[in-house]
Amino acid sequence: MAENEQTLTEKVATVALTLAAGWVAQKVVSFAWAKATGHDAPKDLDDPEVGIISAVTFAAAAAAASVFARRFAGREAKRVVTRLAARAS
């Protein structure tokens, strides 16, 4: 039973950390985009006013940040759950 609880705890921690990491990644990419280009990050990549190069570049940067955030959240969740389980023992 303890193993199932730990698995559930790990899943909940992963979801929480993934959401938080995704939010932070979005803010970082938007901030970096504004500093690098002098324009706000595009909200709608299908908007005709957004150039194709800008849309593709922003999409690639956002995707890279998303992958990094997901991997970070998964690893950190596992580390936190392991540490909490060791304390509980």
Task: Please provide a written account of the structure.
- InterPro entries: DUF4235 (IPR025329).
- Pfam families: DUF4235.
- This is DUF4235 domain-containing protein.
- The chain crosses the membrane at residues 12-34, 50-69.
- This protein has 89 residues and is an all-alpha fold.
- 82% of the residues lie in helices and 0% in strands.
- It is built from two helices and no strands.
- It has helices spanning 2-37, 52-88.
- The chain is elongated and about 60 Å long.
Question: How would the blueprint of this fold be written?
Answer:
Layout: H1 2-37, H2 52-88
Helix pairs in contact: 1-2
InterPro entries: DUF4235
Pfam families: DUF4235
Transmembrane segments: 12-34, 50-69
Could you write a compact summary of the structure shown?
It holds the Pfam family DUF4235. The chain has 89 residues and is an all-alpha fold.
Keyword list:
mainly alpha; elongated
Work out the helix count. 2
| Gyration radius, in Å | 18 Å
The total count of strands amounts to 0
Order of helices and strands: HH
Shape verdict: elongated
Given as residue ranges, the uncertain stretches (5+ residues, pLDDT < 50) are none
- The termini sit apart by 15 Å
Question: Could you say which structural class the secondary elements and strand pairing correspond to?
Answer: mainly alpha
What is the percentage of strand-forming residues? under 5%
For the sheet with most strands, the description reads: none
Approximate helicity band: over 70%
Average pLDDT taken over every residue: 84
